[in-house]
Amino acid sequence: MSGFSRTKSTLILIFASIGSNILGIARNHFFATHIPTSELSSYYAAFRIPDLVYNLVVFGLLSSIFIPVFMGEKSKSEEGAFNFANNMINFTLVFVSAVSVVLFFLMPYLTELVVPGFSTSAKNMTMDLSRIMLISPLIFGLSSIVGGILNSYKKFVAYSLAPLFYNAGIIFGTLFFTEEYGVYGIAYGVLLGALLHLLIQLPSVFKLGYSYKPILNLKDNALKEIGKMAPPRIGGLIATQANFFILTIIGSLIGKGAITYLNFANDMQTFVSVVFGLSFATISFPLLAEKASKEENAGFISEFSKSFRQILYFAIPASIGLILLRAQLTRLILGYGYFKFADTILTSAVLGAFAISLFAQSTLPLLVRAFYALKDTKTPFIASVVAVIVNIIGSLFIPQLLANYVIPNSGGLTFSVVGLALSFSLASIMNMLILLFFLHSRLGDLEDSKTIISLIKITVSSIVMVFAVQVIKYLASPIIDPKHPVFGFVMQTLVVIAGGAAAYLLTSFVLKSEEIHGVKDILNRYKRKSA
Predict the structure, then answer these.
(1) Which residue in 156, 424, 430, 432 sits closest to 312, CA to CA?
(2) Helix (H, G, I), strand (E, B) or coil at 483
(3) Which residues pair with 406 in a beta bridge?
(4) Is the pLDDT of residue 166 over 60?
(5) How many CB atoms lie within 10 A of CB 116?
(6) Rounded to an integer, what distance in angstroms lies between the CA atom of residue 404 and that of residue 419?
(7) More confident site: 222 or 150
């Protein structure tokens, strides 16, 4: 991939991710205004089983393992690669459909396991919502294979737009279906969004010369290769998903609304990990796989190090900014309708606890893909298992330490749920450190000196940013008019974000951070190419 092509692809993914996450924030705003908090907890809990299927089959097998195998087939024959893709599509149709049917009938028992603390009516609602949304993993399975083909050809436009259409479908369902169907309208919106996620990518893949064929060959060598790589990958994803199940199970026991607070806060903080972490990891993965297949260790290390440092450059200040502005952001986005002031206090506290580990959450997609490019699925599995153990232990004890802290005038709400987010953060940091240790052990020097220098400059720039944010917050406080508080909060938040970002970027420029000059080179290269 040429320098400009990489630049263009990175910008496309970043801006599309920003757009998708802005829609995700808008989606949550409409959730808060249209659906009671208790029903939203049922909706989020209902997502756990379909999301497990999605993450195991779609996100795990298809998006991570499919691409290296498809590229290997493509290097031999494009026709063979497309035949392999068709084989995977048909296998996915059969396998995911069978799994979904089994889960449909097991749902009453699974619901009891996932939300033991819910009332009977809430459990029934959770079960019904899960059954509706079981269709979505099948659609996403097909969409993921199509996206994998586009990724392999380094065609990122339609692929990066798909999440926008997914969120748009959910928003449509929230605005137009919930009045008649209540929270079930959101589930119908999920199905609409999943369908749009697939449809937006089809024209681009057909332009590559792909055509569907009803091929299903279980003896295909490429399919067998995926089968060999799958067990550790599935095990690792089960371990990762266990973290979210722990949050849901214990959240249902903590009390009303806890699951909603966790999911709202998680959606806000994943803005950073998705926009920067997942975008750079997605761009780097085909390049890492290519370097690994050619046994170009120096090129592999260089590509990994550059992406790793670039992710940290954006993720660290963003996490600090989230911690400093968590109250303002939570009230602006969620503080309406059914979502009361006490709800925003808890959600902002949970957001701060999640944000502590954003640097780890943002680099994990790249670290995991680095091992997959090396065709090593066992190491990420081991790291995930250790992280789950840390999360389980933390989730059992940390919430109890915070149970005595009650929010005034909240009807007895405590900060216990914040303990779950803290435990999740500890597990994420542990996961990252283990993967980094084993990658370093395998490849040796990962351009460590460059990373250390970058971290020092990022730290100094972040300290300047914190000072600027706090000063601007104080100076901008008169903007908030008690008669029009929302407008004042918006203006104050925008001014603070702009000032903090300017302080960080200016300090980085003065310190000659390689990453800020990389951004500058990206823009200059793009300008020259466009001229």
Answers:
(1) 432
(2) coil
(3) 414
(4) yes
(5) 12
(6) 12
(7) 150
In the block, which residue shows the tokens 């999920």?
A: 190
Give the whole-angstrom CA distance, residue 168 versus residue 197. 10
| Predicted confidence (pLDDT) per residue in 246-265, tens digit | 888 888 888 777 888 888 99
Task: Give the model confidence (pLDDT) of 453-488 as tens digits.
Answer: 999 999 999 999 999 999 988 887 766 655 556 677
For residue 159, what are the CA distances in angstroms to 27, 68, 105, 172?
Answer: 21, 17, 34, 21
Give the per-residue SS3 of 447-482: CHHHHHHHHHHHHHHHHHHHHHHHHHHHHHHHHCEC
C-alpha closest to that of 267 among 493, 44, 49, 11: 44
Q: Which helix (H) or strand (E) holds 22?
A: helix 3-34
Q: Tell me the C-alpha distance between 310 and 318, whole Å.
A: 13
DSSP class per residue in 88-102? HHHHHHHHHHHHHHH
What is residue 414's three-state secondary structure? strand
Helix/strand/coil for 484: strand
How sure is the predictor about 165, in pLDDT bands with cuts at 50, 70 and 90? very high
For 432, the token pair is 């990252």
Burial class (CB in 10 A: 0-12, 13-18, 19+), 376: middle
Tens-place pLDDT, residues 411-436 = 556 778 889 999 999 999 999 999 99
Confidence class for position 59, pLDDT limits 50, 70, 90:
low
What sign results for the dihedral spanned by CA atoms 351, 356, 359, 362? negative
Task: Return the structure tokens found at 83.
Answer: 């035949």
Q: What is d(CA 275, CA 269) in angstroms, rounded to the nearest whole number?
A: 10
Q: Write the DSSP string, 278-334.
A: IHHHHHHHHHHHHHHHTT-HHHHHHHHHHHHHHHHHHHHHHHHHHHHTHHHHHHHHH
Closest to 169 in 3D by CA, of 17, 23, 333 = 23
Nearest Cα neighbor of 322 from 270, 365, 278 is 270
Q: d(Cα 445, Cα 493) in Å, to the nearest integer?
A: 41
Kindly tell me if the per-residue pLDDT of 129 is higher than 60.
yes
Residue 521 confidence class, pLDDT cut points 50, 70, 90? low
293-350: pLDDT as tens digits: 888 888 889 889 998 999 999 999 999 999 999 988 888 888 887 888 888 888 999 9
**CB-count exposure of residue 114 (10 Å: 0-12, 13-18, 19+):** buried
257/141 Cα distance (integer angstroms) = 31
Q: Which residues contact 22 (CB under 8 A, 6 or more apart)?
A: none
* Token pair listed for 120: 């009977």
pLDDT, one tens digit per residue, over 186-203 is 999 999 999 999 999 999
Contacting residues for 352 by C-beta, under 8 A, at least 6 apart: 322, 323, 326
Query: What does the DSSP 8-state code read for residue 219?
Result: T
Identify whether the C-beta of residue 230 lies closer than 8 Å to the C-beta of residue 23. no
Of 159, 178, 104, residue with least CA distance to 137: 104
Across 87-116, average pLDDT: 92
